[in-house]
């Protein structure tokens, strides 16, 4: 007999079906709750509420498991490439060589942006945060491709928008950096792979030959893979909600970029680096800052620790920590911030205060160390998170559209004033 949930309200019993996922997660289906009972549920922050059913990413917060389309993140990080993982997330299967070659070739062909996009850069103040520029320019693609705002896009039209977005975000992200630095913008090169092309557009100058370092390309692939999707996090839920109104893929992703920018979300990687720099500037005494973090009267908080869903450890942090050691070792970089980070981690993993609060390093804690090692400035860290998360946002938006999900429109419990009559301004005190 199918499992169900019994609810007794006002002395009356109601039964609601239980749905079970392929990993045996169970949910009470309350689609008919309000119609049958007049009640709604409320769950601030949606900590106990599923917004959708999805076949893209599975994570187990208790066991520290993360899989993209069933493949463990550890295997993908070690054996795959970012574009192969992007194809996997978006289309659901690992591509054949021919499929991957075509996907990569299509993206390469679309890395150029309309010349009018360059003019938009001129409208921003030179100190504009790169995430403000990125979200604006990604949204502007809707203006260049107005046909993308349609509820009836064919598979081919959706695929074209997917390719355009995957291709152009790397150019726009690199140009955001070069524009902020006052450097000449680099046009993409069709002879380079995705990550090499991004590094070329970020760090080359027309005045000298740019040498691609395969060790940095490998580290960048791994970082982007580790950020590629994470089920219904804040920015992905934003992309799905905006997309459920039939907004274009570009507009939906632009909204996701703004959600990711929040310091409580993707902006945390920039906050971690700034925290490590502040500790270094203060003399590097990590025990002093551990004590500050434990002092409830002290506003200092350890950034990059703890997570909403992981209850023991973030599997991505373990991989990134090793990658940080590998990259800095390979490049011969002795970054004092890495030593500070390692001391903080060791303290947090042994100090009962942090252990009982499940405060352990998350994906943001070490990623900035690697970005810094490969020359990416702190303000660009969250842009890098967006670059990595894009295939996940695309996959989730596409799944929502293919499943013909209704427009997202949560209910509320009203706690405001009861009905009252308008008072003219002369009679107000
Ligand atoms: C993410 O990867 O999006 C972050 O870990 C945040 C989250 O999953 O809630």
Describe this structure in words.
With 429 residues, the chain is mainly alpha-helical. The chain is 52% helix and 7% strand. The protein has 18 helices and 6 strands. It has helices spanning 33-37, 73-79, 82-91, 97-109, 115-121, 130-144, 155-181, 194-203, 214-226, 234-243, 249-261, 268-281, 286-294, 315-331, 336-350, 352-356, 363-373, 381-402, and strands at residues 4-9, 12-20, 26-28, 57-60, 65-68, 71-72. The strands form 2 sheets. The protein has a 3-stranded antiparallel β-sheet with strand order 1-2-3. A 3-stranded antiparallel β-sheet has the order 4-5-6. Helix 3 packs parallel to helix 18 (381-402), helix 6 (130-144) runs antiparallel to helix 11 and helix 12 packs across helix 15 (336-350). It is globular. The N and C termini lie far apart (65 Å).
Topology:
Layout: E1 4-9, E2 12-20, E3 26-28, H1 33-37, E4 57-60, E5 65-68, E6 71-72, H2 73-79, H3 82-91, H4 97-109, H5 115-121, H6 130-144, H7 155-181, H8 194-203, H9 214-226, H10 234-243, H11 249-261, H12 268-281, H13 286-294, H14 315-331, H15 336-350, H16 352-356, H17 363-373, H18 381-402
Antiparallel strand pairs: 1-2, 2-3, 4-5, 5-6
Helix pairs in contact: 2-9, 3-18, 4-7, 6-7, 6-11, 7-8, 7-18, 9-14, 9-17, 9-18, 10-11, 10-18, 11-18, 12-15, 12-17, 14-17
